[in-house]
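Model it.
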Amino acid sequence: MCREQATNKGHSAMSTTTRTIQMVDLVGQYHHIKPEVDAALQRVLESAQFIGGPDVKGLEQDLSDYLGCRETIACANGTDALQIALMALDLKPGDEVITTAFTFVATVEVVGLLGITPVFADVHPDTFLIDPEDIRRKITPNTKAIVPVHLFGQCADMGVIMAIAKEHGLQVVEDNAQAIGAEVTMPDGTVRKAGTIGTIGTTSFFPSKNLGCYGDGGALFTNDERLARRIRQICNHGSEVRYYHDILGVNSRLDALQAAVLRIKLRHLDAYAAARNTAARAYDGAFAGNAHIRTPKRAEGTTHVFHQYTLRITNGHRDALKAHLEAQGIPAMVYYPVPLHLQKAYSTDRCRPGDLPVSEALAAEVLSLPMHTELDADQLAHITGSVLSFFSN
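Modeled.
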């Protein structure tokens, strides 16, 4: 999913003993890996191979090895990855794609840009993940694909979704912008990485992502060699041989500087996920039993890598709590304040206000707290104490 803005601006300091709290602390993370990153960037600069080259190829292989998939194709950003995936499946205007309205706009934006019809399914109230039973209800003769979003760091119910897709002859494109590294236990007991289960998986390397570069970047994953070849063609102006263009394509390339950064950060990705889970457990423990706070539920059959730690704040207190936290120097974000079926660009008579009650309720209640690899005990204590103090007044 998300290709939204990272937050790394300073906020007023909250005490003399606690570092300034960031929503995402990219500076702190960089300083922990600075020697590795600086050496990798210097190597690219001295080679002057800025487009393609060994670092891009190396990253693609590193990702395939890490994820356990046959093919990885790097591209310019996560939105391109989604668009290229749908182009590779040869979807046409009039075809329908079922996805969630509770996600960042890019998931649906690319559907509309290609003239395909988005059909919205609702989500589970505790995990915020697309509801497979609502997917089933939305299938029509025009349905050609399902785009589940692995939201906030954990995976949609891919076992059930893949069974639905097989039953109806549908393609599955995983929007894995927020859950790279998460694992899914499939019905047969096998364990798969998020983004490698459907027909095509996509991800974003936007800086705020769990695996983020220092600019824009994205990738697609597939176990189908024929599809991989087509994806590579589309990324390169529809061309396999220079100046010969066999299919309609785009210009979407990951530059070598970003690939070099990502190769370093990929080595740390599991440690980053562990740090995020440690912070999540601290939040869980602090908020346990509070009647006004619903902590994020871990979905069955998937690990969680906590791209976001998102609460549900009940009884209409969300916006006042957000303002209270910001007054204490604590950033907090609302992902997402308006579900996509209520956005002007995507509203239709087919999906009206009230048709996705869970998504609409979440939009009024969700609040994401700082979540990143550099959170320390003092910061977590200040954040949780500030949340709890709001409800004790």
